[in-house]
């Protein structure tokens, strides 16, 4: 059994708050989804229903993971239940779970990366409009698929492939995945999931300043800001014990 001090337990709780915040920071994707729904009544009803189902499912799923992990391992619960939990049977169940995680990350990666892809490609087209490698699309027809045609751009293929390779290589050097995830959640949660939506709601609904609704929204914003700051502090402090453990001069006096 490992001994966890009260201070370390507190910082781990802060890191867990950051992980939870990351799970709920879906505002960037939500805006893209709303943009594809053209009819206002349909958009309003569909997004309310989707948000309710999505948030409820996420809450139940993460609560189950946290409660089951703590019930099984107590204070020794690992950050990755699939690879560091101490059990390896049944193998097929672990393999299926890992495949599901990989599919989930691949899809999420594509959704979040589209904004970067679009920004870089649009900027390059505007900067070098005379370069055919950047602006020209080549049509390729595949007879096996019934003559289906695809438009391929050389710059797009090279740029996106290089981006995926570089980000994958950088990800392999990140030894503190959960801590890094918590830091991203802490940085994006308050700004994207709380501040901007509240400001848009106040502007759209014309909420009077210093009214009860306005004060409640400001109180919610302040609470979420404190949550983000606590999670960020825990994420920054988290790697310190591990870095001290692997410090090359730790045994020297």
Automatic annotation (TrEMBL):
Domain Amino acid transporter transmembrane: 4-237
Transmembrane segments: 52-73, 93-120, 165-198, 219-236
Pfam families in the record: Aa_trans
GO MF entry, a single one: symporter activity
InterPro entries named in the record: AA_transpt_TM (IPR013057)
Keyword Repeat: no
Protein localization: Endomembrane system
A single GO BP: amino acid transport
Any GO CC annotation of this UniProt entry: endomembrane system
Described purpose of this protein according to its UniProt entry: Carrier protein involved in proton-driven auxin influx. Mediates the formation of auxin gradient from developing leaves (site of auxin biosynthesis) to tips by contributing to the loading of auxin in vascular tissues and facilitating acropetal (base to tip) auxin transport within inner tissues of the root apex, and basipetal (tip to base) auxin transport within outer tissues of the root apex. May be involved in lateral roots and nodules formation.
Family statement drawn from the similarity comment of this UniProt entry: Belongs to the amino acid/polyamine transporter 2 family. Amino acid/auxin permease (AAAP) (TC 2.A.18.1) subfamily.
Record protein name field: Amino acid transporter transmembrane domain-containing protein
Source taxonomy: Eukaryota, Viridiplantae, Streptophyta, Embryophyta, Tracheophyta
